[in-house]
Design a protein that fits this description.
This protein is of the alpha+beta class. It folds into 2 domains: 27-104 and 182-209; 109-179, no CATH class. It contains 7 helices and 4 strands, in the order ααββαααααββ. Strands 1-2-3-4 form a 4-stranded antiparallel sheet. The longest helix is centred in the N-terminal third of the chain and has 56 residues, at 16-71.
């Protein structure tokens, strides 16, 4: 006669060990699902914050443009901290803004070096344009004799060619234009800060130019 097993005696019930293993597997699955949901919520929240921050930065930059259009460019640097958008502040967001004068370099050596070659090879912008002595003499003889062939030599003078001429022109005009550019251009910077303790954020930079008066044609009142 066959002896009934333990499971048969209990009417097909699971053992305690089997139940614990099943609960453990179920718990791991639920934890994985919940972790994925929490991560998705964080990503969505961060994307929403980035979208709001972008809109606030655009709003603040528009306010700066209106201020400059109304009051003109500030003579000195101006800066401040506020809630980004006037009458539409969002909790947890803050804007640091500044309007700064630009400072251009005193010389164009770096730009000339980029166009004419490395320092010591291409020489100064003037040397690059004029070229060697023989090219200067041949071109001058051609100009004095009325031979247009001498003009062709001007295109090949110097190691830099057209780049050398551009560099030379910039070198002459830059000292004259530098004060005017620095006076009529300002750099506006808006930094939006958000997140815990303002640890997240980004900068938006724009260059503002003074509004020029309309040109009056000759003969007009």
């Amino acid at each position: 006669m066959r002896t009934p097993t333990t499971r048969q005696r209990r009417g097909g019930a699971f053992t305690l060990l089997e139940v614990m293993v099943a609960i453990g597997i179920l718990g791991l699955g639920l934890v994985s699902i919940f972790s994925s949901e929490v991560q998705s919520m964080k990503v969505g929240q961060r994307a929403q914050q980035m979208n709001v921050a972008s809109l606030l930065a655009r709003c603040k930059m528009g306010e700066i443009e209106e201020q400059v259009a109304r009051d003109g460019l500030p003579a000195i640097d101006d800066q401040g901290v506020d809630g980004c958008c006037e009458d539409a502040e969002v909790e947890g967001f803050e804007c640091e803004w500044s309007i700064e004068r630009i400072v251009l370099p005193d010389d164009t050596g770096a730009y000339s070096e980029e166009l004419g070659g490395e320092e010591g090879e291409g020489g100064s912008p003037l040397d690059s344009v004029l070229g060697d002595e023989s090219a200067q003499v041949n071109t001058l003889d051609g100009l004095l004799s009325g031979d247009t062939g001498g003009l062709g030599g001007m295109g090949g003078m110097g190691m830099g060619g057209g780049d050398g001429l551009t560099s030379f022109a910039i070198g002459l005009a830059f000292p004259v234009l530098k004060p005017s550019i620095e006076e009529q251009v300002r750099r506006a910077t808006v930094r939006v800060k958000y997140g815990p303790d303002g640890e997240r954020g980004f900068d938006v930079v724009q260059y503002l130019v003074a509004e020029q008066p309309p040109r009056v044609e000759e003969g007009q009142p």
